[in-house]
Automatic annotation (TrEMBL):
Its main location: membrane. GO terms for molecular function: electron transfer activity. This is Cytochrome b561 bacterial/Ni-hydrogenase domain-containing protein. The chain crosses the membrane at residues 12-34, 54-78, 99-121, 141-163.
Length: 202
């Protein structure tokens, strides 16, 4: 597998960075909320019960909803090749070969998208009063906890597989500020129209 630095579309880098920031913020504040009110599966006891933590976590979730929807649509249309493919089961039999590692990376990408979707949806079905009132057994709250556990593991696998497939150059390429002329932000709206046109005419 080549370790030369690949080129990543600017929109992918920007949307990926925004989602990573919001997911990380939501994850940290979400854990602090859990650590304040729940701790039934273990905790660190870092904070006391503070309603402000729920508000901060909800703020991250609010912005994540809109940014993630854009990223999700972009991933499903323009970056479809980086998600699970029709030959996934076949390539998984090619243990320890390049195709196998690429497949694991695609699986982690797809799993992360599904997990964030579950976290966002389950978060919107919760009420802010549940935890302060000691109501810890709601189905949507459990779904929210499970989603964040899946997100944690999928991100860990995602980073490990990205390093395995492309090495440090692949990681660095996501932070490269340079972009090609066809990736200029002023062309993004036209690119979006082209993506939808391609989907509708398949």
């Amino acid at each position: 597998m080549s370790k030369s630095q690949p080129y990543q579309p600017l929109f992918l880098r920007v949307s990926h960075a925004l989602n990573a920031f919001l997911v990380l913020g939501a994850f940290i504040t979400g854990f602090l909320v859990y650590d304040s009110y729940d701790r039934r599966f273990g905790g660190l006891g870092l904070t006391e019960e503070k309603r402000s933590l729920i508000n901060i976590h909800g703020t991250f979730g609010f912005f994540l909803l809109f940014v993630y929807l854009v990223f999700l649509v972009y991933s499903l249309i323009a970056q479809r090749k980086k998600l699970i493919q029709g030959n996934t089961l076949q390539t998984l039999t090619q243990t320890n070969k390049p195709a196998w590692w690429y497949t694991l990376l695609r699986i982690s990408n797809t799993l992360a998208l599904i997990a964030v979707s579950l976290a966002v949806i389950s978060g919107k079905f919760q009420l802010e009063d549940w935890l302060p009132n000691g109501e810890l057994n709601h189905l949507w709250y459990f779904a929210h906890l499970i989603a964040w556990v899946i997100i944690l593991f999928s991100i860990m696998i995602h980073v490990l597989m990205a390093i395995k497939v492309g090495g440090i150059p692949l990681i660095i390429s996501m932070f490269n500020p340079n972009f090609q002329p066809q990736d200029h932000p002023k062309l993004w709206l036209g690119n979006v129209r082209n993506w939808f046109y391609q989907v509708l005419n398949k």
